[in-house]
Amino acid sequence: MPASSRFYTSATCSLATASSRSPPGHRRASLMGQSPSAPPGRSRSRSRNGSSSRWPHPGLGLDLGFLLGRKPRPGDEKPDLASWMRCFLSQRLPQPTAVAEERADAEGKAAGRREEEEVGADEADHLVVMVNGLYGSSADWKFAAEQFVKRLPGKVYVHRSQSNYSKLTYDGVDLMGERLAEEVRQVVQRRRNLRKISFVAHSLGGLVTRYAIGKLYEPAMDETSSCDTDKTSDEQNVPGAGKIAGLEPINFITSATPHLGSRWNKQLPFLFGVPLLERTAAGTAHFIVGRTGKHLFLTDMDDGKPPLLLRMVKDCDDGKFMSALRSFKHRVAYANVTYDHIVGWRTSSIRRQQELPKLKLTANDEKYPHVINVDKGNLEDHQQQGSVEDSLADSYEEIIIRGLTQVTWERVDVCFHKSWLRYNAHNNIQVRIHPINSDGEDVIYHMIDNFVV
Question: Cβ distance 236 to 230 under 8 Å?
């Protein structure tokens, strides 16, 4: 196993009850509520001893079912919570190594060569890459991919990303972004007729995609590599000048993506805004979802660098993140106003608290019953007046907002207030499983109808 950021325990830390095998069908709960399924036709990576688990030691995977009161199933070992806590307190997450990065490249190349998750006309020259969220898979975008091809016949070729799925999504935004970038390169090399590229991402996938495009960006002129905010101004970079993987960037679309992270008040709604729970989540998320948890809560300090999400609102040595984002003609953020217990409205719509509009939970267009507001203007053109103390309540959040709003975003506010499955809004907005999440079909149709071809 590479020293990447899947959950590692100390070599001296062991479970008295750990067995030498992983129980058949063993599933682990997800912090973000994503699908546990792997892409069709792919089996989980196997360790040298033949175990199907991706954990360093079979039997050491965290089973949240015990903590949530799930009754043990036949074959389950009796958990020893005290031993688990000793492991938690003693372990330290290792940083990615060259071996981990090589493995990420290899997995990205392998995913880019597979064609079973692609759909569309061979003559289509517009590549649409769909990216899943935490603990999800390419299957999560199956319905949307089919609708894109059906409603835009002969115009788009859809590739559902396969390089980050299941526990691979615990590796951190950077390693996942490297895998996605390499996967896209492979697809582009395989399909020589492509001329344009767009991305559609759900939840964590939006952050991964923002990292990947920073790696794929090809400037039209020489640029400095220092992290300088001034170099990302509209005057320094002409929209449309650069390319992504050699293609013309058109649409960058995210749905329920925690652009500002999950650290701030009510950004992880199922914690009910309780400060103690939010502080606890920020300090313990990496125990459950590895380095990804550190990135989401901005607790990563790799080699003394600022948190990754802060670095991703600038052009720097890590990637041309803002130049890449600016190169797209159309940037859209779909956000759940309420009933999304995984990603808050503020972080998914890239707004400050005082900038959230007061909306009626009813649609303006009967064609899209769950789309209640579309804001096509620049945030800075109409932001509500607030005190300096309010806007600088958390400097990290303010830095990210100021960075991302250097470019114009179209914000689409979604509400499933009248849905029978309203509390599953995080999956409805993507139509992750059809027909269970079919209430979100109109959101996908809205996305397609406003898609720049």
Answer: yes
Could you tell me what percent of the chain has a pLDDT over 70?
70
Q: Which pLDDT belongs to residue 252?
A: 98
Give which of 268, 255, 143 is closest to 207, Cα–Cα.
Answer: 255
Closest CA to 171 of 8, 311, 397: 8
Candidate from 31-35, 186-190, 333-337, 402-406 with smallest mean pLDDT: 31-35
Nearest residue to 158 (alpha-carbon basis) of 134, 128, 193: 128
Residue 236's contacts (CB-CB under 8 Å, 6 or more residues apart) are: 230
Alpha-carbon span 196 to 204, nearest angstrom? 24
Name the packing angle between helices 204-216 and 275-296 (round to 10°).
30
Tokens standing for residue 52: 């199907």
Mean pLDDT of the chain: 79
**Averaged over 58-78, what is the pLDDT?**
41
E strands, 82-163, in order:
118-120, 126-131, 156-160
DSSP bridge partners of 335: 413
Q: What are the two backbone dihedrals, phi and then psi, of residue 288, each rounded to the nearest 5 degrees?
A: -100, -45
* Residue 340, CA distances (Å) to 39, 203, 427 in order: 25, 11, 9
176 phi and psi, to 5 degrees?
-65, -40
* pLDDT for residue 292: 97
| Predicted model pTM | 0.77
Distance between CA atoms of residues 168 and 106, nearest Å: 13
* Spatial separation of the C-alpha atoms in residues 270 and 340, rounded to whole Å: 8
